[in-house]
Specification:
3 helices, Alpha-Beta Plaits, two-stranded antiparallel ribbon, alpha+beta, 141 residues, 26% helix
Amino acid sequence: MRRYELMLVLRPDASDERIAAIVDRTTRQITTDGGQIIKVAPWGRRRLAYPIDRYREGSYHIVLFEGAAGTIAEIERTLMITEEVMRHLIVRQERPVRAMREDGSEDLDDTDLPSAEDEDDDDGTERIDESESEAAPAAID
């Protein structure tokens, strides 16, 4: 199963009970199709970037879940015909790619990259940390 993120933008004039019913119906649909809900996060009312159907605000909800591709099509079909849903977006979440180390253990890819602290200066000059600089407080005043 793959991990997905569903963002719902619901009408701001919808009642809290109706919003809870829509989110509950969506999560039940995911679980009945064999998926698993990871997290449901209500973001609350937020201002939209542009008006949608005369509304300037929307009630945002995020649902993280794992499911199959057939589940996605059914969820989108249901959300398209739901009157209170102004917009929705389902995005597949990429999991970090794991690399095999020489000793056979798994490790994340970015751990092999050097950090800025690991770099050696070949020119022999000393770098000054901004927190140690006396000019920084004077520049603020």
